[in-house]
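so i finally got all the pieces together for this one. its two components total, 228 residues if u count the protein bits. some of the lines might not be protein, just check the labels. i wanna see the whole assembly predicted at once instead of chain by chain like last time, that was a mess tbh
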Amino acid sequence: DAGITQSPRHKVTETGTPVTLRCHQTENHRYMYWYRQDPGHGLRLIHYSYGVKDTDKGEVSDGYSVSRSKTEDFLLTLESATSSQTSVYFCAISLTPNTYNEQFFGPGTRLTVL
Amino acid sequence: AQKITQTQPGMFVQEKEAVTLDCTYDTSDQSYGLFWYKQPSSGEMIFLIYQGSYDEQNATEGRYSLNFQKARKSANLVISASQLGDSAMYFCAMREINNNDMRFGAGTRLTVKP
């Protein structure tokens, strides 16, 4: 199994509070991704990183920011959480962005915004 | 526009029988990769099988095979000899050469009946 951990695994927070989710990998993969999973939508990309301090937006980036100061860590921040951000968040890693490289996923974080 | 379409929200199959999960995709790229992931009730995303757009033969991995019909832009997953442990959500996904992310379908929930 790919060495990917996410913390916290579960979080309940209130509207308007900041939230940071952490993804940690031990595989030394260059590419890291944050997805959210919602019923009927599959997984949708929020942000991704192609190296330390190199990040870019995905399909549903509004309301989220990311940072990557070390190869192994990729942080997702909700500056002011809203109820629409209640979701399951998955981190993924990939050796390269090539079409033949699968992404390996972390265990997910279930976030509830009240 | 939806890039990956899974038209079967739910499927049932009898144990030991084969089942086909449908996936169609939309891309203008010539080079792309198609993936299937399994998500059991425990929530983790498990990579199952990969098919490259230039691969002439259908991919197989144990009881999983991918029925790739390039002209029809379909990449159906076939599970042979279904087992109770195959009950899960199944996601079809695509990586295109000109994109850094992976696009997912909405998923199909497979239930294997004893």
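The first strand of chain A starts at residue 4 and ends at 7.
The two ends of chain A are 34 Å apart (CA to CA).
anyway lmk what u think
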